[in-house]
Structures are given as structure tokens and as C-alpha cells.
Design brief:
- The protein is globular, with a radius of gyration of 26 Å.
- By secondary structure, it is of the alpha+beta class.
- The protein has 16 helices and 28 strands.
- The structure holds dioxothiomolybdenum(VI) ion.
Length: 689
């Protein structure tokens, strides 16, 4: 990227603190629900208490009699909506109940307390139907979706994996399962809707303001320019805010009906039903190899669930398609539609559960071949993308494994499982590879020269807590050749035009490309304002396989009697192109790794088959790590120069931290105890039984 003439110290790479940090710690930074508006009313949702069937009666009388109640909305009286690919958004359009916890009605009232009180007074009678809520092997409803997210082939085959497996000297054939888990962003999903002359403005906790404006325009049958979505600050998302959630539609319907601005926020408990979760998976992995650990065949079959409202087909086996060299390969996905909430995006959807299974199986293969697990991976390093046959733009997995091993202290590891003891603790270490694609999508940016050499840059990026606003400020500063404090970065408004979602680890790469282009065009023009789009640049990207890589290392201690697992040390070594901000990047890595540890050991949404609902609905029963659970977690990265990505040379970093962590921990637990747990989470009962 071009630097302006005055730049002595590039901003990119520096560990800059968040430019909005002061606003955030003083409480000046406004989140969607906090926008002050005159005459606001509050909506509270009424949710289904059966898992399948129909609403027979809506009795709103008692609720309407309460003070301050403005309206009770249900399928009987709500406005008709247009279209949505996501059936979860078509609120109050039919009496059908698709899952327990679905929003079926709502109260709008003068106060939040009044709305919630009245919501509990709305009486719904049902005509229930039998429900089917449990993913299980051999379910007769499994089908082959047409594609998996976002647009990968459902199945992929090269050569004859079955034949190669039958002929292989060493075979690992194991089934791994992962549990349903729920995103729990600190900021619950919240929306504030205002209608002015038939145009909708929505302050929303959303990862993509521009995309949301397009989706909601279809739902409300409006021209796209008549919907404005604003998301200046968002308190975490992890994918669950990647697309509008039902509370956005609820706020907008309610505001239209009562003709006042309306705020709608989900309670923590409602989040467990309405914002999506990571699908549970059943995964069979088969690896066939020579005795010296050369893979001949890789097969990976994933079974997962979706809802009856929307097909969400997680791309669980796609990472297996590009990780290791093997001439014969097979990857498949099968789905069953259950009477459950729709699964959705959750940090590294696909790669995260898929790599847990693949990287556990690789550990099992290393043991079967009597090889070091790092050497096994190095031996199966492909020259080109093994499925597509095209070169990688850069691939530094081996460097991450080697450098990570050095820093972690892997060299003298005794591979024998279950032999290291420190008092009552069994001690072990494990390793796993990590990867995540380097995506980029079209974005539009405007750069403007103001007074005294100050610049404003506008783009509909969203900072969900990652530090995106700061990274973009650094990128703009270098492109303009000024200090970061001379750049004002305006983000989070769909009015700034098309922009990538803060998801798929593509935000900074996509937005940054547009920011650089706008700044360079402004410098060339020398004055005024310039708006650019990167849609043609993205289309023109050459045929290369673009991915980030990493190596995860874990040390665990397992109580020999109780099975309690502690993780004294987690270390991740990553290769992610150029790092834009050393401080916020490290936070992304160790945040992802902590979330991976959480998946390995703690998080589990437990399905209650009788009631047809996840029964742990709050942070008392749904376990996430407390500070004391997170001991030494650290991340580092190698210098990686990849000129084939974008003007910054960066790859995404939001998701790779979670990929491979659970496998590294499970592999370490095996090393410590000799017990292979193939079902997450690694609970005490699974270790001591
Ligand atoms: Mo991420 S699950 O792509 O927001």
C-alpha cells in the first residue's frame, strides 16, 4: 500500500489502543438500546411453551387491562410482512409453532417493566403436535442439502476413498460428537425502531449494518434506501448478530403499530432460543495411511441439525478438504430438520467443530503410526490446495508448528500417555493445527479532506468489540500519510453504502481495501471528497487458495480421582499475513482460544427431550470460563508476507483462534490420562467412567 510523503512511522502494526476506548469506559459510547429518543415505548416478547403445533387462542384481555399497555401483537392482528430467506424474521405471520421459545406474541407498553409484566399476562392456548428435537445417528430424516454455508458443495470426492481406506496399512475410523453451544455476547440483542414518513431507521446490535438494511427492506417491502440501520457500537456478536434477529423485526412492527419509537431487547434467557447457536454434530472421520504416516485417504462425514423455519447447513468438513495431502478424499454433510430453533453462525462455523474431529483423528493416527503428532502433520503438508489443485497464496502451517513447538517447549515430550503425575494431577500436552479462510467482499468507502489537514473516512463497517474502528484508522492514516489522530473514522451506518459484514473474519480485509482505495484516490485528487467501491477488485482476484494457519498447543492437568481438567497453559502460533494492530490482534487470538477452551471443557446446551427445549437458559447453568479457569493463554505470530490478498497484506484473525483449540486440549487430555474423549465437552463423568 502507498504511504503518503509525511509518514515516518507507519501506524499499521502498532499496538494502538482503541480509538473509542475512553468513550467506552466512561459510558459515553452508545449501544443500540441506549440511543435517547423522545416518546419511546417498549416491546416485550411472549414465547412459545410448546415445541411444535399451533396457537389455538390468543387471550390478550388481561394484558390489555394493565396500566400503560399500548398493544398486544400476534398473528391475529400484526401487519403482513414481505419476504425473508430467514423464516425466523417473519414474526406473527401464522399460528404455527416451530420451536419452544419462538416469539409468538408481544406486548408494547409505556415502560419496560410494564411490557414485561403484561407479557406474562398474555395467555396462549395451543393445539400441540408431537415434537422431534434430538439429533441422533441414523435419524431417518437425514437429507443432503443442496449446498452448505455459505455456498460450498455439500459433498466432495477425489479418487476412491473407500478403496484406499480398505487397502491402507494403518486406519483410524472414529466418530466424534460436538454439543450444541450458544453465543452469549455481553450485549443482548437489542433494537430501537423509528418510522418517519414510511421510512424505517433502526439502531441495532448487528454485525452488518448495510446487509441488515437490505434484509429488512425486503421484510417490510420498502425500497432499500428507505431502511437505515445504525450500529455505532456493538457488544460482541460472534456470528449471532451476523444477520437481523427477530427482535429487530419486533421493534419495527411494534413501532409501526403504536406509531412511536419502540425499543426491543432480548433477555439473556430469550437469547438461548432466538439468536442461533452452533449446531451439534456427529462426525465420522476415517484416515488411511502408510506405516510411516503418509495419508492415502481422508474421509469426513458430518451429520447436523437445522430447523423447520430455515435451512442452516453448517460447513463442518470444508477445512478437511484443504488441510492435508492425500490422493483419495471424501467429505460429506447431512442435515435433519428438527422442531428446534435454527442454528446459526458461531465463531468459525464449520472450521471449529470440523477441525476438532479432524485434529483429534490426526492425533490418533500419530499414535497408531508411533509418530510425533507434529511430524505427522509436516509429513502430510500439501504443495498445492489438495482439493482444488491451485496454489496457496501463502501457507505457513509448518512454520507455525515448528516455531510454536519451540516456544511452547515440545522437544523432549515423552509421547507415552498417562505416565506423568504431579501429586494428584495427571499432566499432558497436546497439539492441533488451525486454519481459517481469508475472505474478502465488496465494500464502499468515502474519504474527505477537512480543515487543517484532517481527514474523515466513512464506511459501513461495524466494530463488534474487535477493534475494527482502530485498525481502519491505522490503515487510513498510513494510506494518507498522516498520524492516526488526524483521521476520523465514521462507521456503523448503512447510509455509507455496501460493506462486508463483521463476520467470516473478512471485515478488516474488506473494509481496509476500500479505505486504502478511497484515501489514495483522495490524495490523487488533492481536495474535496472521493467515494470508491471495491466490487470490481474483489471479482478480479486471481485463482488462489487463501487461508490463514496456526498451531495450537495445550498443557492440561487432570485430577486422577475426580476427572477435573485444568488448563495451565494454552499457546497459539499463527500465520495471518500482516497484523494491523498488535494489541487488538492478540486479544482476538486469545479470546478465540479461550472460547475454544470453553467449548472443550464447559459449554453445553442440554436438550430436554420431553419439553423440547434447551434447558440451561442462563449463565448460572450454561457454563463459560471464569477468570480463574483461564490461566496462561498466549498467542504469537510469524512474519508473513502475502502480496496476493489485499492492499494491507492481511488475513482475518477473528475466528482462527478458536479453531483447533478443543482438539489440542482433547489430545492433551489423552496424553495426560490415556483416555480418548471423543464427545465434547470433556466432562468429569466422561473421564472417570
Ligand atoms: Mo462470524 S460466525 O463469521 O461472525
Amino acid at each position: 500500500m502507498t504511504l503518503g510523503p509525511d509518514t515516518l512511522t507507519p501506524a499499521v502494526g502498532a499496538p494502538l489502543s482503541r480509538v473509542e476506548g475512553r468513550e467506552k469506559v466512561t459510558g459515553d459510547a452508545r449501544y443500540a438500546y441506549e440511543e435517547p429518543v423522545e416518546g419511546v415505548a417498549y416491546a416485550a416478547a411472549v414465547t412459545a411453551t410448546i415445541a411444535a403445533g399451533e396457537i389455538a387462542v390468543v387471550d390478550a384481555e388481561a394484558a390489555l387491562a394493565l396500566p400503560g399497555v399500548l398493544a398486544v401483537l400476534s398473528h391475529e392482528n400484526a401487519p403482513r410482512l414481505g419476504e425473508a430467506d430467514d423464516g425466523e424474521l417473519l414474526l406473527f405471520q401464522s399460528p404455527r409453532v416451530a420451536y419452544r421459545g419462538q416469539i409468538l406474541a408481544a406486548v408494547v407498553a409505556e415502560t419496560l417493566e410494564g411490557a414485561r409484566d403484561a407479557a406474562s399476562a398474555v395467555r396462549l392456548e395451543y393445539a400441540p403436535a408431537p415434537h422431534d428435537v434430538e439429533l441422533r445417528a441414523g435419524h431417518p430424516g437425514f437429507y443432503k442439502p443442496e449446498k452448505v454455508n455459505p455456498s460450498f458443495p455439500t459433498d466432495a470426492a477425489t479418487g476412491d476413498a473407500e478403496a484406499a481406506l480398505s487397502a491402507a496399512a494403518v486406519v483410524v475410523d472414529e466418530t466424534y460428537t460436538t454439543q450444541p453451544i450458544h453465543n452469549n455476547a455481553m450485549e443482548p440483542h437489542a433494537s430501537l425502531a423509528l418510522w418517519e414518513g414510511g421510512r424505517l431507521t433502526l439502531y441495532d446490535s448487528i454485525q452488518g449494518a448495510w446487509g441488515a438494511s437490505r434484509t429488512l427492506a425486503k421484510v417490510f417491502e420498502l425500497p432499500p434506501e428507505d431502511v437505515r440501520v445504525i450500529a455505532r457500537h456493538v457488544g460482541g456478536g460472534f456470528g449471532s448478530k451476523g444477520t437481523p434477529r427477530p427482535q429487530a423485526v419486533l421493534a419495527a412492527i411494534a413501532a409501526r403499530v403504536v406509531q412511536r419509537p419502540v425499543k426491543a431487547a432480548l433477555t439473556r434467557q430469550q437469547m438461548f432460543a432466538t439468536v442461533g447457536y452452533r449446531t451439534p454434530t456427529i462426525q465420522r472421520v476415517r484416515l488411511g495411511a502408510t506405516r510411516d504416516g503418509r495419508l492415502r485417504a481422508i474421509a469426513h462425514d458430518a451429520f447436523e441439525q437445522t430447523s423447520t423455519l430455515r435451512e442452516f447447513a453448517e460447513q463442518t468438513t470444508v477445512a478437511t478438504r484443504m488441510m492435508y495431502a492425500a490422493p483419495d478424499r471424501l467429505t460429506t454433510h447431512r442435515l435433519v430438520a428438527l422442531d428446534v430453533p435454527t442454528p446459526s453462525w458461531m465463531r468459525a462455523p464449520g472450521e471449529c467443530p470440523g477441525m476438532y474431529a479432524l485434529e483429534s483423528a490426526m492425533d490418533e493416527l500419530a499414535i497408531a503410526c508411533d509418530m510425533d503428532p507434529i511430524e505427522l502433520r509436516v509429513r502430510n503438508e500439501p504443495d498445492v490446495d489438495p482439493e482444488k489443485g491451485i496454489p496457496f497464496s501463502s501457507r505457513n502451517l509448518v512454520a507455525c508448528l515448528r516455531e510454536g513447538a519451540e516456544r511452547f517447549g515440545w522437544a523432549d515430550r515423552d509421547p507415552t500417555p498417562g505416565v506423568r503425575r504431579d501429586g494428584r494431577w495427571l499432566v499432558g500436552t497436546g497439539v492441533a493445527s488451525s486454519t481459517y479462510p481469508a475472505y474478502r467482499s465488496p465494500s464502499k468507502a468515502t474519504a474527505r479532506l477537512g480543515d487543517e489537514g484532517r481527514f474523515t473516512v466513512e464506511i459501513a463497517a461495524v466494530d463488534i468489540g474487535t477493534g475494527a474502528r482502530t485498525a481502519l484508522t491505522q490503515i487510513a492514516a498510513d494510506a494518507l500519510g498522516v498520524d492516526p489522530d488526524q483521521v476520523r473514522m465514521e462507521i456503523g451506518d448503512s447510509r455509507f453504502g455496501q460493506a462486508a459484514v463483521a463476520g467470516g473474519s473478512m471485515g478488516t480485509a474488506s473494509w481496509g481495501s476500500a479505505v486504502v482505495k478511497a484515501c489514495e484516490a483522495l490524495l490523487a485528487q488533492g481536495e474535496g471528497e472521493v467515494t470508491v467501491s471495491t466490487s470490481e477488485d474483489v471479482k478480479a482476484q486471481a485463482q488462489l487458495s487463501r487461508h490463514a494457519f496456526g498451531a495450537q498447543f495445550a498443557e492440561v492437568r487432570v485430577d486422577a480421582d475426580s476427572g477435573e481438567v485444568r488448563v495451565p497453559r494454552l499457546f497459539g502460533m499463527f500465520a495471518v499475513g500482516r497484523v494491523i494492530n498488535a494489541k487488538t490482534a492478540r486479544s482476538q487470538f486469545i479470546g478465540g482460544m479461550t472460547m475454544g477452551m470453553s467449548m472443550a471443557l464447559l459449554e453445553e446446551s442440554v436438550m430436554d427431550g420431553e419439553f423440547g427445549d434447551y434447558l440451561n437458559h442462563d449463565l448460572a447453568q450454561y457454563h463459560v470460563p471464569a477468570s480463574a479457569d483461564v490461566q496462561d493463554v498466549d498467542a504469537a505470530w510469524i512474519e508473513e508476507d502475502d502480496g496476493e490478498l489485499n492492499p494491507m497484506g492481511s488475513k482475518g484473525i477473528g475466528e482462527i483462534g478458536i479453531v483447533g483449540t478443543a482438539a489440542a486440549i482433547a489430545n492433551a487430555v489423552h496424553h495426560a490420562t490415556g483416555k480418548r474423549v471423543r464427545d465434547l465437552p470433556i466432562r468429569l463423568d466422561r473421564l472417570v467412567s
